[in-house]
Amino acid sequence: MSGPLRSLVLPAVCLITLSHSVPAAAQCSLEERYYADCLLSKFTAEAAVMVREPRFRINLPNLFVRGIDVSVYGVVSVEVENNGAADAPAYEVVVGAYLDTVAGQSVDSFETSLQFPALPAGGRYETQVGTLYVPDHEQDRDVAVVVLVDKMDLRDPGGQIWETNEEDNIAEYECRIFGPNPDMSGPPGC
Is-above-0.90 flag for pTM? Predict the structure, then answer.
């Protein structure tokens, strides 16, 4: 249906539906000049209240990497926070850290999987996860760290813990351990 007939039928159907389904219709006077506008405004006000007040709320944890730190000696630390509304059980954290020369030559790396303890809602946990071997401080060295909280695999594509946001479980960090003649054009200093 198109044209002027459609433009008349749609408001009529809405008006009939609103007048039969909205208790607020009793507050609109038939003598009011804009009866349909009155009904519509009352209906949208009631609908807005219904949208803002969910009937069921599921409290879930939300684990995310709050911080990654690398010392000038290669010590890598990770801080995880649970900013969800529920406690999180113990979980797995996978860390990959890589130390390269500025030219891209690999110097050292490690990959590890650690079991972190349960975190209450609003809680944080920070620990050292490993150390990169920094042979000397005679030249600049670039560090890259990747952290995955609540490891995902084919059996658990969302991880083992249901969370409010599954998209904030990966964090990356880059920094540079400076030598005697620092090149400031790259990542910030560790």
Answer: no
